[in-house]
Amino acid sequence: MSQKIKVSKTLIMLAMPAMLIFMAGCSRTVDTSASGKTYPVSAPLQAFYDRMGGEVVLGPAISKLNDNTTGQCQYTVNALLCHNPMVAGDESFSFYSLGNELNVSDVSINTDSTDGLIINGFTVYEEFVPIFERFSQTTYAGNPISQVRINYAQQRVEQYFEKVGFYRNFNDPIGTVKLLAYGAAGCTRGCSYQPAVEAELSNPSISLSDLDLMEKLGILVDKSAFGKALDKAHTAADGSLEQVYTGVVLFQDVTGVVRPRPLSMILGMPVKPPAEKQYDYSSGVVFYTVNDTLGYHVPILFDTFINAHGGTAISGDPINEVFEYEPALFRQCFTNYCLDYDPSKRENKMITLTPLGKLYLAMDQTVLPQAVTPQPDPSVISLQVSETLPKVSTSEAQTIHVMALNTEDQTPLSGIETEITIFFPKEKTWSALLAPTAVDGTAVITLPILKNIQNGSILAYKVCTVNAFASQTCTTGTYLVWTAP
Predict the structure, then answer these.
(1) What's the rounded Cα separation, in Å, for the pair 195 and 186?
(2) What domain count does the chain have?
(3) Residue 418 belongs to some domain of the structure
(4) pLDDT digits (tens, 9 = 90+) for 350-389
(5) Domain harbouring 419, CATH code
(6) How far is CA 420 from the centre of its chain?
(7) Please, is 485 exposed, middle or buried when counting C-beta atoms within 10 Å of its C-beta (0-12, 13-18, 19+)?
(8) What distance in Å separates the CA atoms of residue 324 and residue 330, rounded to the nearest whole number?
(9) Would 266 be classed as within a structural domain?
(10) Quick one: which of 132, 143, 156, 243 is 20 to 30 A from 165 by CA?
């Protein structure tokens, strides 16, 4: 067995087990999609069950204690726990290898990679390493039996091991790792329990064709202007989830962020280098600066459309000036889409997106250049924070909203990863990673309920950028903990 651990990026994640324990002590979210008959954990297994995370991690017991070849075993939602009374000490406890019976495996094995924690040719997904360590690696989790998978149908990242499976929902903060419902899938007799939909090994009611990426774009505007969907959501050549619309192509990566592809660039629309400003608003244009003092003149009508439909976070920067593509018909292309102007139509129909989606579908997308999203320098990132509640009681959960903006033009920045730290009395702190900001520049995290904070305390918190930059951008906020007498 070959093992080599990659240190970068995992240090933050190593704090997750402690954070999970802390959050479990403060509050517990009940998934209303889970239902069925549960049982008390049997006495021989109770201490082991509690040590491995109890109901928060393993789920409730869903069967009675039964005998099998391993010993006395009991199903929980996420595992099959066993106790061998003929063996003394910790070695008497184990997790049964349900994964081997569930026909979950990969035939391809990675033997060349040297990055990360590698076991029998399988790389343990970096984000799952902390909880894998918490399960004493192969002792209780078993050997990996799959590479990490991006399950777009169920909107999660997942990896299967012999004894348990791990996953994170796309919309969960990075590091929020949970167990797949191995036990519910493996208990075919004597169990009548339906696990949470998000934890099911395979949910036949969910398919890629049911997804509409436009709904996940994250901008609070009328999205109908981008046109109708020309195909179903599908896995693209680069491994991301993709859907083509009349005027734009959207894709979703492993972080769950949905953004437009650089459609104009991919299709080779005319490009003109930026130039000096010659006209201003009085001439019917807005000058978009893209390189120091250089840029493009954008007609006010186009600028109005862009601002009403997600801003340049959706359109991207201009790539040329307005040109007449047919007599009396005008067009200007931006990185992600093109706009057409037909002065002969009625006012609300003059501006439309160029129907580039059909051209994209007609291309051989396996040879398309894959665009790299440039990360802004930290000096151009401005973070803003706000609280849903100005004060919370000891039975309420606070929600923090984060907005990442470009300092120069105040446009939203997507894909920015941040971390929140709460400062408690006696120099104690609590930290968590947020999901990357969406296309509209926003990210949200709901904090755990804090029951042991003195009434009247003012809690300070700090939000900082992480991972992508050599230096950080931070901002701070406060809120009051107050329970009326």
Answers:
(1) 12
(2) 3
(3) yes
(4) 999 999 999 999 887 666 654 444 455 556 788 999 988 8
(5) 2.60.40.1940
(6) 16
(7) exposed
(8) 4
(9) yes
(10) 243
